[in-house]
Design goal:
CATH superfamily of the largest domain in chain B: P-loop containing nucleotide triphosphate hydrolases
Number of helices of chain A: 9
Largest interface: A-B, 66 and 78 residues
Order of helices and strands of chain B: EHHHEEHEHEHEHEEEEEEEEEEEEEEE
Strand order of the largest sheet of chain A: 3-2-1-4-6-5
Oligomer: heterodimer
Largest sheet of chain A: 6 strands, mixed
Order of helices and strands of chain A: HEHEHEHHEEEHEEEEHHH
Number of strands of chain A: 10
Distance between the termini of chain A: 38 Å
Radius of gyration of chain A: 19 Å
Strand order of the largest sheet of chain B: 2-3-1-4-5-6
Strand content of chain A: 5-15%
Number of strands of chain B: 21
Shape of chain A: globular
CATH topology of the largest domain in chain B: Rossmann fold
Number of domains of chain A: 2
Largest sheet of chain B: 6 strands, mixed
Helix content of chain B: 10-25%
Structural class of chain A: alpha/beta
């Protein structure tokens, strides 16, 4: 490799930092959507890089479904303190209590879909004109069509067939009052890139990603963690397994894989030999072939 | 595994219509490079069965939105990712029919390489010419012409040679530096990842070998120093009380601490004091790195300014000659003002004159017809409210490209390459 050539990870990093700085320069009131998952952690790390030695100039917004892994919440609070950042929490429970959202019913009930209501409310209430998220194009077929700067109308909706063309590195952030943008600085990263980067940059991640003993039940071909938020059926048996999570969502919808990978190195090796997509254990994506596309059009992250 | 962090990134674009096997080729690259997960393959198998197909149709791997699947077409640019032990790849997969120019221009704008698909039965057709002309206009450094469906012409060398000769004849009129040819069958996998056993006469590389080894180190401009400032970093903390850093992405050239620099448009001069990153100061920075620079002197620098070398400056122009690709259903209106974005600066512009329309199928310049519509390419003269710090697009894609934004709808209506 010639000396004036970047490795692919360094090129992706440079691209993401450029996008994050464009958000800072082109919007008045931008924020980072922070879920506590690895992608939003990497995004936040890149924001640190973009503004060093200054602090990250964005608040972290967490949409709290109330169905969290306790480990994620602790990790979130520690990180916010370390960064000296402002944390804004949008509560799904509040949306339910004030009648804006209705709780799902049934055995696989979860709060994944209704968090869109809380997210859009939080955006409106805080007058955010841009929310950066850690979504990646390799995750899902609807996300493969996303722009870096993705326009949302005044109802927060995405119109995939009518997106603004995005050329070179010229990003158009123009919008009318009440509209906003979702910005995806790590669009071009793959799951493997994220893990390699976490390993090489020594980025802290929640313990849930490492193999650990946990009480689980077998449901929909995955190991679902036992918590106060799921109804366990008579025919379901609680067992203790050594598992780890490949993605983190709500505790009600995130299934784990049996694994012995208890170090970052082992995780990277496991990801390299994985034969299933990372969202394969996500109950929210299994509902239909177009469930991500449908939710995204409504304003889902 | 140990090599993963040392890999280069190659971005390429594919263009083609429903019938020329583009989706099958991408499916084949993903499948043969083992980038497909079992659950994805299972979904495609089931879809193939539902459609009553005999085998698994790898083209379905590139299916996207609901409408696209229902209509069997691609509407928008889709980005796909795969890696081999040698390189990491990003494919901008662009549709060949609906809004073809708009989408292909978008995909081409960031690509190192274009795959041009030719159906071996039909040879060089209008669409082949159109894609090649766009690739040349957008200055994609490398073209790989895949002559596909060789299985349908009995893997004949004669058929291949005729098409190569035809294409070379046509390409002599284009501004492309590096053109290569590969005879393939995407359906059977011949010469895609694995070498064909049915085309012994072909002694060149497989498509994958070409993608893995083509030299992309010179695709960025490392000669003309250009640093457009994105934003100014002022921590205002005790530890960094006087810190004033200029954040941006290098658009060209190599910068080092100690270098004399000139700030445009102000004309102030100074020296680079340091080049900062979170990982510590660095000795040099080059395109496309994102860095923060500090200067020896306290000069006034802000977003839209550019740091360059005194003996190598961009043009400062208000009358700008551009090749414009129109992207919107509403064509340009006379005397209409647009917002123009160029590097990190933003100005207003009007279209002074439409010189000619370019026929993207024949390269013919039409000076009589000046009604410009969506997907059309025209040579225009723009007038801007403030000077642009610009290079020709041929010299530098970063400092030679612009977009036009409609001030009423906020839509991006045109993309331009400075001549």
């Amino acid at each position: 490799m010639s000396s004036y050539n970047l490795t692919h990870i360094k090129e992706l990093e440079a691209e993401s930092i450029y996008v994050i700085r464009e958000v800072f320069a082109q919007f008045e009131n931008p924020a980072i959507l922070f879920s506590g998952g690895k992608d939003s952690i990497v995004l936040t790390h890149l924001a640190r890089k973009a503004f060093h030695p200054a602090k990250v100039p964005f608040p972290l917004v967490h949409i709290d479904t109330g169905h969290n892994f306790p480990e994620t919440m602790k990790f979130r609070d520690d990180l916010v303190e370390k960064l000296g950042a402002r944390l804004i929490v949008g509560s799904v429970q509040n949306s339910i209590d004030n009648g804006m959202a209705a709780e799902e019913k049934g055995r696989n009930a979860n709060r994944n879909a209704i968090q869109t209501v809380t997210l859009l409310d939080t955006i409106a209430e805080n007058k955010f004109d841009a929310c950066m998220g850690g979504a990646r194009r390799d995750e899902e077929k609807a996300r493969a069509k996303e722009r870096f700067f993705s326009h949302r109308d005044e109802f927060g909706q995405w119109d995939p067939k009518n997106q603004r063309p995005e050329l070179w590195n010229l990003f158009n952030a123009k919008h009318h009052h009440g509209e906003h943008f979702r910005v995806f600085p790590i669009s071009n990263w793959t799951e493997m890139d994220i893990w390699q980067y976490i390993l090489s940059e020594k980025i802290d991640i929640p313990s849930l990603y490492f193999a650990h003993e946990r009480e689980v039940i077998r449901r929909s071909d995955t190991w679902l963690p036992v918590s106060d938020f799921i109804q366990i059926q008579d025919n379901e048996e609680i067992v203790t397994k050594k598992i780890r999570f490949r993605t983190l969502g709500d505790i009600t919808i995130t299934g784990g894989d049996e694994s012995d990978a208890d170090t970052l190195k082992k995780i990277v090796e496991e990801v390299a030999s994985a034969r299933q997509t990372e969202r394969g254990n996500r109950e929210d994506d299994k509902r239909s072939e177009t469930s991500m596309e449908d939710r995204k059009k409504e304003g889902y992250f | 595994m140990s090599g993963y962090l040392d890999m280069e990134l190659l971005r390429f674009t594919t263009a083609g219509s429903v019938d020329d096997g583009k989706s099958t080729l991408i499916g084949r690259l993903l499948y043969d490079s083992k980038s497909i997960f079992e659950d994805q393959l299972e979904q495609v198998k089931q879809s193939s069965e539902r459609k009553g197909l005999e085998g698994t149709d790898l083209a379905l791997l590139t299916d996207g939105l609901k409408d696209e699947r229902e209509q069997g077409i691609t509407i928008d640019v889709a980005y796909r990712y795969f890696a081999t032990p040698k390189r990491k790849f990003i494919i901008a997969d662009t549709p060949g029919h609906i809004q073809y120019t708009r989408n292909m221009v978008t995909g081409a704008s960031t690509a190192n390489l274009a795959l041009i698909l030719v159906d071996a039965r039909h040879g060089v057709v209008e669409q082949t010419r159109r894609h090649s002309i766009i690739a040349s206009l957008l200055q994609i450094p490398h073209l790989v012409v895949c002559i596909n469906k060789m299985d349908l012409v009995d893997h004949s060398q004669e058929a291949y040679d005729t098409i190569v000769a035809d294409y070379e004849d046509f390409a002599s009129k284009l501004d492309v530096k590096d053109v290569r040819f590969v005879p393939i069958s995407a359906l059977n996998g011949d010469n895609v990842v694995n070498r064909s056993t049915t085309m012994d006469w072909y002694e060149g590389s497989t498509l994958m070998y070409t993608l893995e080894h083509i030299h992309i180190g010179s695709d960025h401009n490392h000669i003309d120093c250009r640093f457009p400032v994105q934003t100014v970093i002022r921590p205002k903390t005790d530890a960094f009380h006087d810190f004033r850093g200029y954040a941006g992405r290098i658009a060209g050239g190599v910068f080092k601490p100690g270098d004399d620099i000139l700030v445009l448009p102000s004309g102030f001069t100074s020296k680079i004091k340091s080049i900062e990153t979170l990982d510590g100061p660095i000795d040099e920075a080059f395109a496309p790195m994102s860095v923060t620079m500090t200067l020896e002197d306290d000069v006034d620098v802000g977003r839209g300014d550019m740091l360059v070398r005194a003996n190598n400056q961009p043009k400062q122009i208000q009358d700008v000659d551009v090749m414009l690709c129109w992207l919107n259903s509403d064509g340009p209106k006379p005397r209409m003002k647009y917002t123009l974005k160029h590097t990190t600066s933003e100005v207003k512009t009007i279209i002074r004159e439409i010189r000619y329309k370019l026929d993207v199928n024949t390269l013919h310049r039409n000076e009589a017809d000046k009604e410009v519509g969506m997907n059309e390419i025209c040579r225009v003269k723009l007038r801007t409210t403030k000077p642009l710090l610009a290079d020709s697009y041929r010299k530098n894609r970063n400092t030679g490209s612009v977009i036009l934004i409609d001030e009423g709808t906020n839509e991006t209506v045109a993309a331009g390459m400075i001549i």
